[in-house]
Amino acid sequence: MRILIVDEDVKFAENFKASLLDLGYESDSAADYSTALEIFREKKHAVVVTDHNVAKLNAIELMKSLREINAKVLVIIASANIDIESACDAVNYRANAMYNRKCELRDMLILLEAANLKVHPTGDLQMQHSKLAFEYAKLKLAYDDLRGAN
Fold first, then answer.
1. Full-prediction pTM beyond 0.85?
2. In degrees, to the nearest 5, what angle opens at C-alpha 131 toward C-alphas 62 and 122?
3. What's the CA angle centered on 130, arms 22 and 27, to 5 degrees?
4. Fold type of domain 2-149
């Protein structure tokens, strides 16, 4: 499964990319949305992990553009500060997940493993497991974010 990381913080993106490589994932990174779209068109990523705001643009706009190219791409939106409006936008425009960048790498890996199962199902039972794992990961991250807000 190939993953595209979109983040202005080049150091973060490169470190994340290195961690993914260590775990066997192929990935690319882009520091802005136009470069991300070019790379996405060329390499056909299954999953895009994007910062919520890059160069004053919103991840929802990127997600719309990505889905014009490939309606099945899984989009995970990251943000250091998740607010209610951003979370509602992510739900309304069908982001596959939204996570807090302050979370641990293991939490992100749960999301990516669920995405991997969704991209590469091996039957009905596997697909059901994939959906459950993905929903569990989203709920766990939302719960952790809410606990951290209190």
1. no
2. 105
3. 30
4. Rossmann fold (3.40.50)
